[in-house]
Amino acid sequence: MDHFAQAHLSELLAAARLGPPIPSSDSDPDAHKALTMISFNAALAALKGVGAISAEDTTGWTNRMLVVLGRKPLEPLPPSTVRLINFGGKRSQGAPRPPDPPAESRFLGLVPVDEPDRTLGYGGRIQILGVELYSDKVSVNWRLAPLPDLEALFAAELAEQEPDLEGLSDDFKKILRDKLIQQLQMRRRSLTVADDVGTEYWWTGGGSGGGGNQRRGHSDFAPGLPEDAERLTVRWDQMDFSVPLPRNRNSP
């Protein structure tokens, strides 16, 4: 089997294990699985068409993808027959009405965090630098310094990828492992927030950057704090950071 073809297929499998970039409550997982399978079959057909993989390879990689998507491997078919795979997805009923434009976001203040500097269990340290309060959201400022050991953090995901890389050169393996670590790091949601009155917050965006063994960023959550909340809790993995909230914070 061509090693470039194997590398490409292993990347597609890794992406399928990750799932949609931004899953949401109204997304259709069956539809996403169906599209993933269609794209993967197209890649297999193209690679087979140029002689990069054999028919036996095609069957084996198809079964790998089915397992990733939660299905059983396929039994061999009799000659001159075809098989349709249905993931039970429903057709879209049309695009929903676009939402109304959001109200103007008003800055209310920057709040410090109790015990903001902690050691991570997988190497490195996390600092929660402060929480920005807005009328419609909260924004958590954070810093990783030194950076954690990402291979230790994503050991389980890297172990899942390992069988797909069998037979590739060490250089090829390193490239694909590094790419998977980067994707996992971008999609990982280490940080969540909660308050003492039970408000349900959802992640709305953020960003980060760094260099020199450190990384700084911010994560935004909606909605804004309710007036009766007295304490916000920022959670990074299993560590809770307490944020006492000022009174009269909604005053102009």
Task: Note down, in words, how this protein is organized.
By secondary structure, this protein is α+β, with helices and mostly antiparallel strands. The chain has 6 helices and 9 strands. It has helices at 3-18, 29-49, 55-68, 150-153, 155-161, 170-187, and strands at 107-111, 117-119, 125-134, 138-144, 191-195, 202-210, 215-222, 231-236, 239-244. The strands form 2 sheets. Strands 1, 2, 3, 4, 6 and 7 form a 6-stranded antiparallel β-sheet that branches. Strands 5-8-9 form a 3-stranded antiparallel β-sheet, with no helix packed on it. It is elongated and about 75 Å long. The model has no long low-confidence stretch (mean pLDDT 86).
Descriptive tags:
32% helix; three-stranded antiparallel sheet; 6 helices; alpha+beta; single chain; 252 residues
**Can you give the mean pLDDT?**
86
Morphology call: elongated
Main β sheet profile: 6 strands, antiparallel
Ends apart, CA distance between termini = 67 Å
Range of helix content:
25-40%
Oligomeric state:
single chain
Broad structural category: alpha+beta
> Uncertain segments of ≥5 residues (pLDDT<50)?
none
**Total helical segments:** 6
List the helices and strands and how they pair.
Layout: H1 3-18, H2 29-49, H3 55-68, E1 107-111, E2 117-119, E3 125-134, E4 138-144, H4 150-153, H5 155-161, H6 170-187, E5 191-195, E6 202-210, E7 215-222, E8 231-236, E9 239-244
Antiparallel strand pairs: 1-3, 2-3, 3-4, 4-7, 5-8, 6-7, 8-9
Helix pairs in contact: 1-2, 1-3, 1-6, 2-3
